[in-house]
Design brief:
Layout: H1 2-32, E1 34-35, E2 38-39, H2 56-99, E3 100-101, H3 111-120, E4 132-133, E5 138-144, H4 146-163, E6 168-174, H5 176-189, E7 194-200, H6 201-208, H7 227-230, E8 237-241, E9 245-247, H8 251-255, E10 267-271, E11 295-303, H9 304-309, H10 312-327, H11 334-344, E12 349-352, E13 358-359, E14 378-380, H12 394-405, H13 425-435, H14 444-449, E15 456-457, E16 474-481, H15 487-494, E17 499-505, H16 507-518, H17 521-524, E18 529-535, H18 543-552, E19 558-561, E20 566-568, H19 572-582, E21 590-594, E22 596-598, H20 610-619, E23 623-624, H21 639-644, E24 649-651, E25 660-664, H22 680-690, E26 694-697, E27 703-705, H23 712-719, H24 721-742, H25 747-755
Parallel strand pairs: 5-6, 5-8, 6-7, 10-12, 13-14, 16-17, 16-19, 17-18, 21-26, 22-27
Antiparallel strand pairs: 1-2, 3-4, 8-11, 9-14, 10-11, 15-18, 19-25, 20-27, 21-25, 22-23, 24-26
Helix pairs in contact: 1-2, 4-5, 10-11
């Protein structure tokens, strides 16, 4: 838009010049041709040497005027040419509004212009900057470390994706934890026209570890200083963001500000909106040196190419070394060092309007930098209090933040029309697989679910695990949805070992879970529980995908494949670790069966021993699992033998057998074609048998199923005939696949099915 406005000014100026310069010139020449009130002829015929009024001086004057006239004519010719070019470009400028994106408020390079710009707000159409090209890639750098920061990055990225119309390239400086989480998240998110590159933050520690830092961000809070060295050498400019940022506009508007940089300006920053650097917050408060109020580094525009030429690395290091001699440590991490450099070199900074970084920190003065909340562009939650910060518009800010926090990320998978996306092998393979499906098939939705890519956020909460020295550790694996959340505390009380859980939730439900977990003393006291969010998509519950996600992300050599509705007996964790050694699970293909029981009572006095459980069985308080609904599922466990068994015993596979087992972590995955209710565990046990796993029942182990309302999927199975038909079709196809894969040995599964 600014380009259009400037074009109009140039057009008008050129037009006026072409019109008035000749007029003024001829007036000047005409006036100069009078002498003593009489006209002096410029005609060669009238200006002969014999003329009584002819003199040498008048001849020189005439020649001088003729030279000046020729110069003016030449200038007019050039102006006409420029005007012609401007006219020819003018229509395309207007057309360019449709092919280019986002004008933005004109930035400022000094404080007076800044104040004027703030007052002007968005009202002046000609106070705006050149548009960003439609398919121009915008580069964004973010430093991210740990579990909590990874969650914050997702909300930031959502706010950027929501408004964007340009391709994005995120440069993530991440530690090993954040890289694992975010790499999986973006790989499964599959957002078009978004590229992600990771840079190892742990390798950069040595670059800044010599700087003492009191800020809660720790060593990672200093890593923005080394971006010129870390990011690709051919990357010329980048927007750097803190993780606690929320965008309320298109990031392309901020990217366009780079066009306003002049001279040696290489840093785009917003003035700090607190009195921190003024040094009067409390007695003996001594901040690092800064220019006035200083600048906040939550949002930075970096001209990387110029910074490298200026030897930025050397510049900030020398400044930091000098100041640390008296300051001893930084209080605000990289921000202190940036400000110290700017104090010495004020020409480096281009001051952005404050709506590009409205800082909701303690002692903030952010309310003075905008007239209305609708003027805001970027909100920065830079107070440790985060959403509980004090501000008269905090409800507006909080609601905006929560909107993106709970926004369905699947809706952000939209294409950028007119902008070609980079070829993505995973996306192409997915499209090919889906295209091979028959949409007229009555079981199309079942088949399609097998190929659906669900956005996955690993380790949603902080996770810590110390491997057992004897290499016998066992992880309990389970999956759940929101309606089973109440089981988590009970399971944690029954199982003290590591747990891996896959939760099938929407974005909003994920935040409800987070609040639930953070409010639970039991859950917050357990750091060896990995919570992996698989976001909802489609109409089926992807039970086997969830199991596979939970299985894939265990840190122990063995796993106990359970369900969320079961409570393991007290002490089962230690019992299984001993059984692993006793039965040499490390060197044999065994599946250790934990016998399953159930109660119909919501309140149960949980048996503390096998003897107590047998007594409850005899009294009718407990039952063998699904004895009255699905006897075949657990009948091969041979509960009659288990009652008196004192040593492990082997059982053979039978049709529809689906026990809960302990296996090595390298066991086969669950088959994803089975979704919702029916055959999801049966198929897995069948494959274990096909791979010659030996089923061994543990004599002193047990688990109890707790009652709950029927799931939505089992209700569909019971009420929908087509659901049952499709499940039968999938079973037959699975058995055929087994026969092709395992050959003659797999024929028994077809025979057993026909006889059952």
């Amino acid at each position: 838009m600014l380009g259009i406005c400037r074009g109009r000014r140039k057009f008008l100026a050129a037009s006026l010049t072409v019109l008035f310069v000749p007029v003024i010139t001829w007036i000047y020449l005409f006036a100069g041709s009078f002498e003593d009130g009489k006209p002096v002829s410029l005609s060669p015929l009238e200006s002969q040497p014999h003329s009584p009024r002819y003199t040498a001086s008048s001849q020189r004057e005439r020649e001088s005027l003729e030279v000046r006239m020729r110069e003016v004519e030449e200038e007019n010719r050039v102006l006409r040419k420029q005007l012609s070019l401007a006219q020819s470009r003018s229509p395309s400028h207007h057309r360019g509004n449709h092919s280019k994106t986002y004008s933005m408020e004109e930035g400022t390079g000094d404080s007076e212009s800044l104040r004027a710009g703030i007052v002007a707000g968005n009202s002046s159409e000609c106070g705006q900057q050149p548009a960003v090209e439609k398919c121009e890639t915008i580069h964004v750098a973010i430093v991210c470390a740990g579990y909590n920061a990874s969650r914050d990055v997702v909300t930031l990225v959502k706010s950027v994706l929501f408004h964007r119309r340009n391709p994005l390239h995120f440069h993530l400086i991440a530690d090993a934890i954040a890289k694992q989480i975010l790499a999986t998240l973006f790989q499964t998110w599959m957002v078009p026209a978004v590229r992600i590159d990771f840079y190892d933050a742990d390798e950069l520690k040595s670059e800044v570890s010599w700087i003492p830092n009191k800020h809660y961000s720790g060593i990672y809070g200093l890593m923005k200083l080394v971006l010129t060295k870390t990011l690709p050498s051919n990357l010329e400019r980048v927007i750097v963001l803190d993780t606690d940022i929320t965008f309320a506009t298109d990031i392309a508007e901020l990217w366009a500000v780079f066009h306003k940089f002049k001279g040696q300006q290489v840093l785009g920053l917003v003035e700090n909106q607190s009195d921190w650097y003024l040094g009067n917050l409390w007695k003996n408060h001594r901040p690092w040196p800064a220019l006035g109020r200083g600048y906040n580094t939550g949002v930075i525009l970096l001209l990387l190419d110029k910074l490298r030429k200026m030897k930025w690395e050397q510049m900030w290091r020398l400044t930091a070394e000098r100041e640390l001699m008296s300051m001893l440590s930084t209080s605000l991490a990289d921000q202190d060092i940036f400000n110290a450099v700017i104090k010495q070199n004020p020409f480096l900074v281009y001051q952005l309007p404050c709506f590009w970084n409205v800082q909701l920190s303690d002692h903030t003065r952010s309310e003075q930098c905008y007239r209305d909340v609708s003027d805001l562009k970027v909100i920065h939650w830079n107070s440790p209090k985060k959403l509980r910060v004090k501000n008269k518009h905090v409800e507006f800010f909080r609601n905006l933040y929560l909107t993106f926090l709970e926004y369905d990320g699947n809706l952000l998978r939209r294409e950028l029309f007119g902008c070609p996306s980079e070829a993505d092998v995973n996306s192409e393979n997915l499209q090919k697989q889906l295209s091979e499906l028959d949409e007229d098939d009555l079981c199309y939705e079942f088949r399609r679910e097998r190929f659906t890519v669900h956005r996955t956020h690993l380790y949603f909460l902080h996770y810590e695990y110390e491997p057992a020295s004897d290499n016998t550790d066992v992880t309990l694996v389970a999956q759940l949805s929101m309606d089973r959340l109440q089981m988590l505390e009970a399971i944690c009380k029954h199982w003290e070992g590591p747990i891996s859980l896959a939760l099938y939730l929407s974005d909003a439900e994920a935040q409800q879970f987070l609040r639930y977990a953070q409010g639970s003393e039991v859950l917050m006291s357990r750091h060896n529980v990995g919570y992996h969010i698989v976001y909802k998509e489609g109409q089926f519950y992807p039970v086997n995908l969830l199991r596979n996600v939970a299985m894939k992300h265990i840190s122990t050599p063995y796993m106990f494949l359970s369900d969320i509705d079961f409570l393991p007996m007290y002490g089962l964790y230690e019992y299984l670790r001993k059984s692993v050694i006793q039965l040499d699970l490390a060197n044999t293909k065994k599946a250790l069966i934990v016998p399953a029981f159930e109660t119909l009572r919501y309140r149960l006095s949980f048996p503390k021993s096998k003897a107590e459980l047998l007594s409850m069985l005899d009294m009718g308080t407990l039952f063998t699992f699904r004895y009255h609904v699905w006897t075949k599922g657990h009948a091969p466990t041979n509960f009659a033998k288990w009652r008196t068994a004192t040593t492990p015993y082997r059982v053979e596979w039978e049709a529809d057998f689906e026990p809960y087992v302990v296996v090595r972590k390298d066991c086969p995955e669950y088959d994803r074609r089975f979704v919702g209710f029916g055959w999801n565990k049966v198929a897995h046990i069948m494959e274990l048998d096909a791979q010659e796993y030996e089923f061994t029942v543990l004599p002193n182990a047990y688990m109890i199923h707790m009652p709950h309302a029927p799931s939505f999927d089992i209700t569909k199975f019971r009420s929908n005939k087509q659901y049952r038909i499709c499940l039968k079709t999938l079973k037959e196809e699975f058995q055929q696949d087994m026969s092709r894969h395992y050959g003659f040995a797999a024929l028994k599964y077809l025979t057993a099915e026909n006889n059952s």
